Amino acid sequence: MQFIIAVFTSRNETLYFANMFKSNGIYAGVINTPKEVGRACGISVRFDERLYPIAQNFLKTKPFRSFYGFYRVYVNGNYRRIEKM
Fold it and tell me: Do 14 and 29 contact (CB within 8 A), yes or no?
């Protein structure tokens, strides 16, 4: 399984970004940020990889000052790999 997370250093901006998906009728979850990502607010927005272009467009509509990056997360049983996009 793989998915994308959007990481911010501000909880408020993380929740605002997640709400942008919800307002457009698109599912995105809020999850704990994996420790491998490093500096972040503790929560991230998780969404399907096919929604990546939409997420990029959301970033263009509002100046998110705390945006830290997009990360692709691969999960296979107990194995997890995270890579910056």
Answer: no
| Tally of domains within the chain | 1
CA neighbor of 42 nearest in space, from 68, 79, 74: 68
pLDDT of the residue at 41: 84
The answer to whether the CB of 37 falls within 8 A of the CB of 82 is yes
CATH of the domain at 54: 3.30.70
Q: What is the pTM of this model?
A: 0.92
The pLDDT score that the predictor gives to residue 63 is: 86
- How much is the CA Rg of the chain, to the nearest whole Å? 12
52, burial (CB in 10 Å: exposed 0-12, middle 13-18, buried 19+): middle
Domain that holds residue 47: 2-84
